Amino acid sequence: MIARIWHGWTTPGNADQYEVLLKEEVFVGIQNRHIRGFKSIQLLRRQVDEEVEFVTVMLFDSLDAVREFAGEDYELAVVPEKARAVLSRFDERSQHYELRAERSGEG
Fold first, then answer.
1. How far is Cα 27 from Cα 41, in angstroms, rounded to an integer?
2. Domains (range + CATH), the chain
3. pLDDT tens-place string over residues 55-77
4. Cα–Cα distance for residue pair 67/61, rounded to 1 Å
C-alpha cells in the first residue's frame, strides 16, 4: 500500500471555500475517474499562525495506481486551477510512503 501525502495552505478567509471545493468537486472527480488501485483519500486541516494548512493523504495499492492518478512523473502535485486560485502556496511535489503497518483502535 502506498500513501501519497500533499500539503497546501490558504488564508483563513479562503479556508472554508477551499474545503468545500475539495469535498464537493475535487474528491468527487477523483472518485469518478475509477482509478484501479485507488483506495481512499483523507483531508486534514489545522490553523497555523495566519494560515490554514490542509493535508491530503491518498492510499493506493501500488505506484502503478499512483501513476494512473498523477501521470508518469507521479510525484508532481495534481492541483486543479480552481484550487490554485484559493491556495496561498502548496507542495509542488507529493511525498510517497509505503504503508508498513496499520492497527485499528478496536480489539
1. 8
2. 2-98 (3.30.70.100)
3. 999 999 999 999 999 999 999 99
4. 11
